[in-house]
Structures are given as C-alpha cells and as structure tokens.
What we know:
This protein is an alpha/beta fold. The chain has three domains: 3-86, Orthogonal Bundle (Arc Repressor Mutant, subunit A); 92-162 and 270-301, Periplasmic binding protein-like II (D-Maltodextrin-Binding Protein, domain 2); 166-269, D-Maltodextrin-Binding Protein, domain 2 (3-Layer(aba) Sandwich), CATH 3.40.190.10. The chain has nine helices and eleven strands. Helices cover 43% and strands 23% of the residues. Strands 3, 4, 5, 6, 9, 10 and 11 form a seven-stranded mixed beta sheet that branches. A two-stranded antiparallel ribbon has the order 1-2. A two-stranded parallel ribbon has the order 7-8.
Amino acid sequence: MDLRQLRYFTAVARHGSISVAAQAVHIAQPALTRQMQALEDELGTLLLERTTRGVTLTDAGRQLLADADKLLEDAVAAMQRAQRAGRGEVGHLSIALPVMQNLAPTIAQVLKQYRKEVPGVGITLHHLLSDIQLGQIADGRLDAGFMLFRPLDEPSFQGIPVFSEGMLLAYPAEWKWPKGKQPKVLKDLQDLDFIWLPRTAAPAWHDRLIHCFFNAGFVPRTAVQGVDAASMLTLVAAGMGCTVLPESARSRAPETVAFMALSDLTLRQDWELVWRGDRCSSVLRRFIDVVSASQAKSRQGA
Length: 302
C-alpha cells in the first residue's frame, strides 16, 4: 500500500464511482479498477461494494478512508517541512556577536530582516571575543559569528564583510597638551602613558597594532593593561592613559574621554560574518544570504 493507492482510494470513496474518480485523478478506468483490486488483495478485505449505481464503502473501507485522510495530510505536511528545511526556513542557529556593541545597529537590522523572511528558525546569540568565536565555530558549538581577523590561511573558514571602521586616539579629556600642541602622529605619544592590550587577549589585533606602531616609530610606554576595548575605554575615562579605539567607541564614551585622529593611525577594523564552509547547513546558508543582501542594500544606499 502506497500513497498513490491511498489517493486513488479516497477519490473513489468520495466520488462513489470508479469512472468519475478515474477522470478526477487522470487515470484510465481499467487501471484504477486494478489499483483498487490490488489494494483489497494486499489488505485481505473488501473496501468497496460494487453496485450498478457505483460503489459504496464497507466498514473496512470507511476505516481506511479516515486513516488515509490523516496519512495523506501528514505526507503533504512532511513534504512541505522537507522543502522548507531545504530552503533553510526551519531549524535553529547559534550565532556569536562581538563583545563591543559597535556592530549592534547593523546586526539588529540583519536579525530583523531575517526574522521577517524566516520566522520558523530559532536563534541563540552569544557575546564572545573573536578568538573564542573561531574556536567554537571550528568545533561546531557555533554556526557562525560576527568577528574580526578571520585567518585567511585557513581555508575551512569563510566570511563576508559586514562593517568597517577606522581607529582614533582616545585620551582623558582633562589632559593639557604641552604648549597646547596636540599630537599629530603616533610618535608624538612617545612620552605619554599608554593603555595597552596584552597579546593573550587578542593575538591578531595585538600583532597588527605592533606592526602599525613599528612602522610609525612609536614604542608605547605601557601604564596599565586592559583586556578588551570596553575595559580600555574605562581606563581612559579614569584618566590612566591614552589608547587607540575604534571610531564607534566615541558614541559610547563618557564626557571624560576625548578623541582625535592621527595621520599615521591608518588601521581599520574589518568585521565579517564567519562560518565553516564544510558545515554550512541550509539554515545557515539562508542567514548568510540575508546578511549579504542587507550589506548590498546598505552599499547601494550609501
């Protein structure tokens, strides 16, 4: 007994006529008659009473009709669920966000659009540093993450750009510059207390800063150390030194922190959505498509 036979049977049962049912399901009457006989032979019981006016259901036929309706409904629902899963419309995603909230408006817009297009997918969000995100994406605990410094020499990781921003010097607003002369380049910070980031906190970013500072002839005089951009902003606000922070930090900084651009501070933070290419489910692919479309729309409006 298969679904096709059940569809044929329900058509015969509802029309009360094999000839009329044959027309409805687009099959020759003799072929439909053979299908009904084969179904009765398989079940070992009569389903239809043949009369000169058509067919009526036996008790077995009435029971099968009730069960067949549910089976056929379940089959259609299963097919639709499979199709939705194939389109990435059902399931769950585990996505990481950066600890700093500079991406919050961008990500919020993406998530809003994704929920509008794909309401059947659940999402769990995690705030994690980029290095931790990479480890959890690598071992499958995360599906994807918004992060910095995707390792370009590791082909298993793939990414698409979502946000880019430059860097500024952040310093205590109460500082008085000698002779009123503000710094213009990194080397002008040589004698100032500098808030540094240990390499263990963010190896890739630490190394990029070192390279930038070396090219500028600047060796920071470390006063204190932070563990991330948020803690470094707090230390600047406390008057404990200056540091370099992304442009977006200005919108979250208290009045005790001031910002300025330096001509040779050309570093940028390029944020990406990153995932493992060999673990890209249909659900994740749909999310990536929404992010890509959102970024394309933003570029067009820029």
